[in-house]
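Aim 2 progress update. The chain analyzed this quarter is reproduced below.
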Amino acid sequence: MAGKSLPMNILKQLLLKLQQGQSKKQMARELGISRNTLKHYLA
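Predicted structure tokens:
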């Protein structure tokens, strides 16, 4: 996935799950992305 960005719908889902207080591990699993990718977008 290097060099690519996440689709907008995935980013929206990520933000919603973050607001709901889900763990990073759970969010990554449900969105089908790695925890490192998730950490990159949350930084």
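DSSP finds three helices and no strands in the chain. Residues 19-43 form one domain. These observations will guide the mutagenesis experiments scheduled for the next reporting period.
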